[in-house]
Amino acid sequence: MSRKLLSVCFLTLAATSALHAQTIYPLDRAEILAGSRFDLKVEFPGSPRQEDVTVTVNGAAPADVLGGPVAFVEKEDGSDRSALWIRGGSIPRPGTYKVEASAGGRSRTVSWEVFGTPERRAKNVILFIGDGLSVAHRTAARILSKGMKEGRYGGELAIDDMPAMALISTSGTDSIVTDSANAMSAYTTGHKTCVNALGVYCALNKNTLEHPKVETIGELAKRHPGGPMAVGVVTNTEIEDATPAGIVSHTRRRSDYNDIVEMFWAVKPDVIMGGGSVNFLPKSTLGSKRVDDQNFVAKFGEAGYRFAPTATAMKAAAADPSTTKLLGLFNTGNVDGALDLKFLKKGTVDKFPDQPDVAEETRAALDILSRSPTGFVLMVESGRIDKYSHSLDPERAIYDTIMLDNAVKAAKDFAGDRNDTLIMVVGDHAHPVSVVGTYDDDRPGDKLRDKLGVYAEAGFPNYEAPGPEGYPPSVDVSRRIAFVFGAYPDFCDSGKPYLAGENVPAVPVPGKRNVYAANERNCSGPMAVRREGNLGFDVSQGVHAADDVVLTATGPGSELFRGRMDNTRVFRIMATALGLAAAKKE
Amino acid sequence: MSSRPIFGRLPSRRGILAAGVALGSAGRLLPARAALAAETVTFEGLYKSFGVLGLEFSDRIVALKDRAVRIEGYMAPPLKPESDFFVLTREPLAICPFCQSDADWPLDIVVVYLRGVSPLVSAGSRVAVSGRLELGSFTDGKTGFVSQLRVVDAAYGTA
What we know:
The structure holds 2 protein chains of 2 kinds.
Chain A: H1 3-20, E1 23-25, E2 30-33, E3 38-45, E4 53-57, H2 62-66, E5 70-73, E6 81-89, E7 95-103, E8 106-115, E9 124-130, H3 135-146, E10 148-149, E11 152-153, E12 164-169, H4 180-189, H5 217-222, E13 230-238, H6 242-245, H7 257-267, E14 271-275, H8 296-302, E15 306-308, H9 311-319, E16 326-329, H10 338-344, H11 358-369, E17 376-382, H12 384-390, H13 394-415, E18 421-427, E19 433-440, H14 448-451, E20 452-453, E21 479-485, E22 491-493, E23 506-508, E24 516-518, E25 529-531, E26 549-554, E27 564-566, H15 568-578
Parallel strand pairs in A: 2-8, 9-17, 9-18, 12-27, 13-14, 13-17, 14-16, 15-16
Antiparallel strand pairs in A: 1-3, 3-6, 4-7, 5-6, 7-8, 10-11, 12-26, 18-26, 19-20, 19-21, 22-25, 23-24
Chain B: H1 13-19, H2 32-36, E1 39-41, E2 47-51, E3 54-57, H3 59-63, E4 68-75, E5 82-89, E6 110-119, E7 126-139, E8 146-158
Parallel strand pairs in B: 1-4, 6-8
Antiparallel strand pairs in B: 2-3, 4-5, 4-7, 5-6, 7-8
């Protein structure tokens, strides 16, 4: 037998035994906050009976270490596997824990690190997520917002001007490339999971709500022994979308929007702001996407929340010193992005003319949350950086990065010299984007590629000086930033901003199921060129990248960020700053 | 527009629910009188207000309840090549909510119940639909799918 063939046999054996071995959740090398609640699940292939399996944690019965009770399910979901569960267990004492599962002569061992936290150093934590925020978004936002002369910027972005920085790796348990659910779950629970999952490990359960759960920072903050902390969730996407949902949710499927609203109701963050009102309305209401009669706008109102359907109402509620709880729902879907809200008035601005931007939401949230004597955890998302990057719409993505910067500036102004507020700014995953030069209408030639200046010929773009919010008054200038995408479907590119509304790069091919081609509306005009997609034919938009993302931070605990870190460490550093493990001593 | 990745393994609850939407109304008969005088309606004219707390039908749509109408739009990518229903949208959908568990429908869809099972080969194409306008919350008994505005006993052709 050749060496090559031998090694193939070994690989096959390894793969086979892996297929048939037990699976233990949390997975190997999990980092678990001492005292946090989590589900232990062991899946046994072959449906063994309970008396034929053994599970130990550091040699002891699992219930003695995690608390009980133990449940054992033969043929779970009618399948050929059995499952052992401890739901809502916790381990109060830090240390290394070896979990061993055996059945039918096979065994599997995983190791967990249960970590404690020192004394609390931060009263407040503010986590800013630029959804999909990649280095090129930061660079482009800095160029447009601060300008550049002789290679030097005219100022610093608030998101850049911070003492601590780290590269954050975003991969999940299933893939090098993550999505916003999986990525946010790592930030909010400290556990890695798989694409589409929030606050759960991805086990084999059929029911998306029955996968093994891990506790979120929103839930943990509400259990702080120094008194329940205030929690804020602020976004300009639908509030049920993955990033905001990550503060409260446990589901294998991020699109369980109606269930996610119920999870918000269960945790009751003090400030909830975003779009996506339709999943709060009873099914009898025209436009509702619920399938039951629950009216969550009414329920939150009965629970003492002020309701704000507009920016004006939001500001009035925040200015009222008696307001400590606010539900702000400003759109049936996503709140419009900065370019549409402030300049072009496209998107849904005609239907919803009084929507706040993320910076205004942040200021209102800080006004309300700072009334909490026990401190707060606030998550703020500029969520459409990602959505506009999916739709290959550079200017909208860049303007929403500038909007994120304004929101971060508001938080830094709040934190001031208090030295009690940890602020972090980070993307949840990257997009394959880059700034490669400028498109200059005055360059000779009649093709789009003639208009692209690179190296010395790129020069500097000629956007007008920005207003007080940092936005140039127009994106439609003669020498503009050339912001390109590395992975795309078939689309037509004219090198110009999409002034008539968000770009729709590809549309379904008539008569073919799940096949997309360039949107012909973009294919006329003198400069339009067809770009043959480099993604699968079933992909209609740009995709995420596995590239690391940049995190910047300031405030107590921020010095722990360094070098390259896994995304789960963002949770750990927040938990450390807040003393969340100390909180769990019984 | 959704930017969520494709989720390939678990079935879509919304997709399954939507797929069953036509079950409750197959076999309804189109009144002959209504078929003769179809009023043309447009997506732009369906609602008079979009609010955070809900939408309101336009006065004309309310007046046309249970009457014959004709509306043009785009057939959303169907789940099956043949069916007795499909979803009509204002713009061609850049994504396929039937295909992706995490993709979502726009608010102003029109659910079309055909008179019988027909081939649906026009995904992404502009089509004209004629039938009887049905308004009001309707929960499909078998699937729980909720719709508010339907064209029933319908036929369609290329617009």
